[in-house]
Amino acid sequence: MVMLNSYGRAFLQESICEPYGYSDDCGIEVAGITESFGDISYLYCESSDAINDYDVVAQIEGAVTAPTTTITAYLPENGKSQLLRMARKKCTFNMQIHYGQCINPTDFTDFVYALVFKDVRISSYSTTNLTSRSPDTRAIIDLTFNVSISELVSLYNREFSTYGNVTEVTSGGIDSVYAYNSTNCDGGTDCDDNCDILALQRDGSSYNFIRQVDDV
Known about the structure:
- By secondary structure, this protein is mainly beta.
- The chain has one helix spanning 82-89; strands at 8-13, 29-30, 40-46, 54-61, 68-74, 93-99, 113-127, 142-156, 160-166, 176-181, 196-203, 206-212.
- Helices cover 4% and strands 44% of the residues.
- The strands form three sheets. The chain has a six-stranded antiparallel beta sheet. The protein has a four-stranded antiparallel beta sheet with strand order 9-12-11-10, with no helix packed on it.
- The chain is extended, with a radius of gyration of 23 Å.
């Protein structure tokens, strides 16, 4: 069993004060992710055992770069693109891609697997041809955005257990918010033992903080 890209739906959160939802832009396609964990450079000295040979005396770990991808969408007929507006405002936003075959595509909480993109920033954009000069060159105008991602998290919708309860929440009517607790991950050697996937779930007039039972 493998995942098809046609099983994925993208949800955007333009600001932290708003819930996730479908983008106003139609036909969003998110390309593959590129992420570098830093190349290793080696320092050599002449070998004391053989001519024309060298010994490794040190190694330098290269810088980790932010994950990058591209987002493509159709240019709306009225010219109003949510992604283009955010790019020109130089605003960061959050995005989640939810996967599942037998799920409700409009239900943000219904998924099998999700990719969480935190603090996405659009660095540049381009378009396809804006006009045509003959009938055979007529085409839909695409917008392509190059983006960088501050943090990329995988989220699995497995069994949850109650973590705590809170009766006052300032999130208004948001039913559930998925978050990633990475406070214990920095510098850790075994991130699976320290990182929690948290969710805020409505329970009548109060809310429950829940954490994922299985490690991610």
